[in-house]
Design a protein that fits this description.
The chain is mainly α. It has a single domain, classed as Methane Monooxygenase Hydroxylase, Chain G, domain 1, CATH 1.20.58. It contains 3 helices and no strands. It is rod-shaped and about 85 Å long. The protein starts with a helix and ends in a 6-residue tail after the last helix.
């Protein structure tokens, strides 16, 4: 435990900041998992929004955010390709 008055204040601020960051991280992780499970445009857009907020609040680095967004975009691309392939009629022989 800190002894100096300023160190006590800093500990108090750090704990508040830690709890706020933890809330933001859990909301980001929840949005990412939701977008991974159902890669529809609405889920991906929501995930992008919370990821950008996390970067703005310095929760994680911008390169990590772009990597996550890229992976989610690839999932959306795969999902749309599989839908277009399944919707095309089979040729009659």
């Amino acid at each position: 435990m800190p002894v100096i008055r300023n160190a006590k204040k800093k500990l108090k601020v750090d704990r508040k900041r830690e709890s706020a960051n933890k809330k933001t991280k859990t909301s980001i992780n929840f949005a990412i998992k939701k977008a991974q499970r159902k890669p529809i445009p609405a889920n991906i857009q929501k995930a992008f929004k919370v990821i950008d907020k996390g970067v703005k609040k310095d929760i994680f680095h911008k390169n990590k955010a772009s990597r996550i967004k890229s992976r989610l975009s690839k999932l959306a691309g795969k999902k749309s390709q599989s839908l277009t392939k399944s919707k095309t009629p089979k040729p009659i022989r």
